[in-house]
Amino acid sequence: MASSKFSAIFFLILYAVLLYLVFADHNMAAMYLMAIGMFLEACEGVYCNFFKH
Fold first, then answer.
1. Please, what is the angle between helix 27-50 and helix 5-23, to 10°?
2. Residue 37 has what pLDDT?
3. What is the pLDDT at residue 48?
4. How far apart are CA 53 and CA 51, in angstroms?
């Protein structure tokens, strides 16, 4: 849910690193990074829906 160009680029880079970790067979690090990415996207969604007018 990229609400700005900065967050869109940030999540693109984050998920590119995640994809690399999966292909490099670093599954535990990939799971941690995926959980962090999902949490940050949820925080961005809450911020956009409740605090940004």
1. 160
2. 94
3. 87
4. 6
Looking at the chain, the whole-number percentage of residues with pLDDT higher than 90 is 70
pLDDT for residue 27 is more than 70? yes
Phi, psi of 52 (to 5 degrees): -100, 125
On whether the CB atoms of residues 44 and 1 are closer than 8 A, the answer is yes
Contacts of 30 (CB under 8 A, 6+ apart): 18, 21, 22
Reduce the secondary structure of the chain to three states and give it as a string. Answer: CCCCHHHHHHHHHHHHHHHHHHHCCCHHHHHHHHHHHHHHHHHHHHHHHHCCC
